[in-house]
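Revision sheet: C-alpha cells.
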Amino acid sequence: MEKIPFFKYQGAGNDFILMDQREKQYLSQTNGAAIARLCHRRFGIGADGLILLQAHAEFDFEMVYFNADGGEGSMCGNGGRCIVAFARQLGIIEQECRFLAIDGPHEARIRPNGWVELKMKDVKEVEKGAGFFFLNTGSPHYVEFVDAVGHTAILQRGREIRYSERFRKEGTNVNFVEPTKDGITVATYERGVEDETLSCGTGVTASAIAHFLREPGQGPQAIPIRTKGGELEVRFTPLADSFTDVWLCGPAQLVFEGQVEW
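Predicted:
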C-alpha cells in the first residue's frame, strides 16, 4: 500500500485536506468515491472538501477542489485562502501569488498577521427576489435575511431551498444573514457537503454584497463578518451595475499533517 502525505487546514472553521501534486499525481476526478471517504468524519480524515495543488506553467500553482461528496466543486473561497497558506508552507510563494482555479485566475496576498486576502471574481448579476437574493461569487448562493441566525433552523431550511424545484438539479448554497451593529452574522448550508458548515468563503462574499444592496453606501466597502468558525472580512467596490475589486479576507491555519494509506 502506498502512503500519501496530506495536510489539514482550516479557514474560519471551514476545513480541508490538501495534497501536493506538483511531482506526483495521487488523485483525480476519477477518484470521487475515495475522495468522499477521505472527507468522511467517521471513516476518513474528515473535511468539508479536498484540494489538490498542482503545477501550472503560467501561474504559481493550480487549485483543484472537490466537495466532501467526492465531486469536483465550483470555487471555494476559504479553500482558496487555505491553499495560499499551504503554498507558502511549501516554499512556492512568499507574500503574494497568482493561481488558477476552476473559475479562472485569482490573486492573493498574506498579511503580516497571517490573514490571507483572496481576490474573488467580479459580480455582474444579482437577482433580487421576494425575500432573497441570488448571485454567483464563484459558486451559486441564495441569501436570505433573518432576525436571528441563532434561532434559525439552518439545516432544515437550507435543505428545503437547496432541494426546491428550482435548485434540485444543479443545487445551490444557502446563506442566512443577520445584520449587526458593525457588520453581519452568517450561517451557510453548503451543497456538496449537504450540511451546515462553520463558514463559507463564497457564501460570506455573497452575503456581504446582498447586505450592501439592502443598505447601500458610498465608495469602497469593508464589511466585518462573524460566522460560527470565526471572523472574516469582505471588501469590494460597487459600480453602477456590478461589484469589482472583491476581496475575501480571513485566517488560514495548518491543523495537522500526516500520511494516509492508499
